[in-house]
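Page 42, continued from yesterday. The earlier attempt failed because a stray header line got pasted into the input along with the sequence. Redoing it now with the clean sequence only.
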Amino acid sequence: MKTLAKLPVTIVTGFLGSGKTTLLRHMLDNAQGRRIAVIVNEFGELGIDGEILKQCSIGCTEEEANGRVYELANGCLCCTVQEEFFPVMRELVARRGDLDHILIETSGLALPKPLVQAFQWPEIRSACTVDAVITVVDSPAVAAGTFAAFPDQVDAQRKLDPNLDHESPLHELFADQLSSADLVILNKADLISPEDLAKVRLEVAEELPPAVKVIEASSGRLPLDVLLGLGAGSEEHIDSRHSHHDHHHDGDDHDDHDHDAFDSISIELPQAEESLLLDALTQLVIKHGILRVKGFAAIPNKPMRLLIQGVGTRFDKHFDRQWGADEARTTRLVLIGQELDAALLEAQLRAALSV
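This time it went through. Structure tokens are written below.
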């Protein structure tokens, strides 16, 4: 009986808005025949990230693509590995003869080290290996000394975890994401000066082992040969990588983590003019401290669906595909934040759009 080679796994980590999903889309769009499974860890039961990734052409039918994208709805992958991650990996291991690679996108809050350590479990270790941990860095944010595009919002999320008690949580989380990295991508390199980029490179290098490579990118556009096939075997040496939060994952106390303070609500709206909708969403974000906005919008007289992704008050948008002939032309959004009132937010949005 032929022994199957270990299935390589690439873990992509980084803060909210750093460009992780864009990087994954680029990797899938340029898969060149590779059969890739994707695990997306994101807030929101609607799985907007999963829908975005399913649009990518990966050389298979839509039915097959839907079977290869796994949504984890809980907000912290490192705390759910025993509840959700393990069953998903077990299913993928059973199908590993049909797969060439697994990509895992962590949430912006995830600590990568415990996730890599999960690959030491016998049932996973015998079938999979961590090809690399890729940390995506928001270069303009690091140059500005904030580490994330919206540091106050990211920092607020960290402070909601009662198990973390330190003076500079955002910098320490940034350092921990780097400490587990086998490859670091200085993303959005085209948005800052060469001098600032050089400073970012030096600052990042201070947190890295000497062997870790640092490369620059714009919108995650890099050759797949640079991103896949690194053969790092990260699970073999992850225990020696220092992390500020090592003690928080000692023993079996993962269930003590509490992320219930985060709300993820879904809203359906009628068609609306693009500028009116984006203005209304911006005002809603400011008023209610909404962290993320993701979804699809129906714009009057437009045959294509508008994809919307927002981090704080910054929104990225583009028309992604035609509406289906039998598809309801409605706007569907996921709003993520703290102590959100779904009925109130929907009422305010509808009122703003009816002007």
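Notes: The two ends are 69 Å apart (CA to CA).
Reminder to self: strip header lines before submitting.
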